[in-house]
């Protein structure tokens, strides 16, 4: 993929990050479609810093929301903010819906927090993994390390057929990353 020219807003976002003491890491996948895993999600501040991080990387990632968020006057606003509506529920196949969205897109980056919350959890949800595996796309590892004030995308991999081995890659990457509130960091593991 040919490197794209940085736009004024990328330069501005990088300047703002530097101004507040953050350093940006850019090891994004070269392909135009991948899933972006963000960890450790422990604070509402993650959104603000993550916004400038994404802008600095030239990304406008999308996010997944339940279909009820997109009803009425809120729908156009949610879509403008990057939201993608999916039907959640026992009868619906969430992973399949998102895989279909990837398969019908030429370029798409969806950001997910596998912890699913800003509070402590003892395991990660694995939907992101199954989406990446079934859509044949990379998993990119985004992070905000508050202890070192470094943020960005620190690498990526294509999922194998071995979930435990792939979770080991994620665990090794995120074990040194410190969230805003370390006591709220979830464990990088699958449900036992």
TrEMBL record:
Signal sequence range: none
GO molecular function: 1-acylglycerol-3-phosphate O-acyltransferase activity
Alphabetized UniProt keyword annotations: Acyltransferase, Transferase
Ranges for domain Phospholipid/glycerol acyltransferase: 35-147
GO biological process: phosphatidic acid biosynthetic process
Name this polypeptide is given: 1-acyl-sn-glycerol-3-phosphate acyltransferase
Organism per entry: Candidatus Desulfolinea nitratireducens
């Amino acid at each position: 993929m040919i490197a794209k020219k940085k736009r004024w807003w990328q330069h501005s976002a990088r300047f703002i990050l530097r101004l507040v003491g953050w350093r940006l890491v850019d090891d994004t996948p070269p392909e135009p479609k991948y899933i972006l895993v963000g960890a450790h999600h422990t604070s509402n501040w993650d959104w603000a810093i993550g916004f400038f991080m994404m802008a600095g990387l030239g990304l406008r990632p999308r996010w997944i929301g339940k279909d009820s968020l997109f009803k009425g006057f809120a729908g156009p606003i949610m879509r403008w903010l990057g939201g993608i509506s999916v039907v959640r529920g026992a009868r619906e196949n969430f992973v399949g819906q998102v895989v279909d969205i990837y398969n019908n897109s030429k370029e798409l980056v969806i950001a997910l927090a596998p912890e699913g919350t800003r509070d402590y959890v003892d395991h990660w949800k694995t939907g992101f993994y199954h989406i990446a595996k079934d859509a044949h796309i990379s998993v990119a590892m985004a992070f905000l390390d508050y202890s070192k004030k470094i943020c960005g995308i620190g690498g990526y991999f294509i999922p194998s057929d071995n979930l435990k081995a792939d979770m080991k890659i994620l665990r090794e990457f995120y074990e040194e990353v410190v969230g805003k509130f370390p006591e709220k960091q979830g464990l990088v593991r699958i449900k036992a």
